[in-house]
Amino acid sequence: MKNRDRIRQYDSSLHVHFGSTGERRAVTALSLNDSLQVRLDGKRLLWSNSAQGENHECLLEEFGSDALAGNAFEAMQHALDRYSRRRVIFSRVKGAVKWGLLPAFGLIFALGLNMYAARMTGITSQAAPGPSGQVNEQPAFNPGAMQPGFAPPQQPQNLQLGNIPGLPPAADPSIVKQAINAGTKAGKYAVQLSQGGKGTVYVFSDPSCPHCRNFEPELEKLAADYTIQLFPVSVIGGPESSTAIAQMLCAKPEDRANYWKKIVKGDRLDAPTCPEGEAAVSANDQIFRKLNFLGTPTVVNTSGEQTPLTLPNTARAISQWLDQTKAQ
Questions:
Q1: Which residues cross the membrane (predicted)?
Q2: How far apart are the C-alpha atoms of 204 and 202, rounded to whole Å?
Q3: In total, how many domains does the chain have?
Q4: Are both 147 and 75 inside the same structural domain?
């Protein structure tokens, strides 16, 4: 087999064999993990690394002329430069995956999980966090007992939601209808966002809920044709939402629609709270749970029926659904 000069990288080692031009024609494996250095000394190539110390040099190869030694030294320089460039490229790709792609995939997964949880099961629990972070069972409580005019009648037994496993029983539409009508007439639980000629739409929404914020442009489209009665709740945002809602409900009725547009965008209100507003938020939250709504936003028609779980939250889809249910 004909001898050749070879300098090849295998993992973290550099295999050197000057089989054609070298005098010794030895095969040497040099570690690339220990700051390898190669030096030209006349007709010799010397190498050292950090493990041995700079003052301890080893003979790599001897050559018959200065020209051959110079060519060999340039070949070693080229091999080391190529290794350094590969390390830089690999480091950048690794960093891009670690700090770019992985967080992006994680964010997409988290958003998808949040959408599913908020729509399907995120708001069905009757438990609420206590002051110390522990979960305390909500008392069996009728908001109408404290807030006259917003007391739904007792629900009949054995109400089902189409035999869908894992979902709580839905309130009868007639129960929902009586509850939202009582709350609207009381004048202190709902906010009228618009006045339309095609009918009334009731919406339960949390200003801190991402899905509710995304739904706002569609709600504005519906407001062009329908009267929108909005029941603000804090089932997603907790104290942050309840404070903003209480400030809104303590304001004059004609100012509440504009206040809602502000708080649903995340803006803070420069307005006081009041006991009546705080009690109204609590009552809305209780009614939301009593009626077993699955998440926010929840859209209800005048018959007390909720939009189907598979219906997109778009103005066009909801408008078509309202026309269909009205015709039935």
A1: 96-117
A2: 7
A3: 2
A4: no
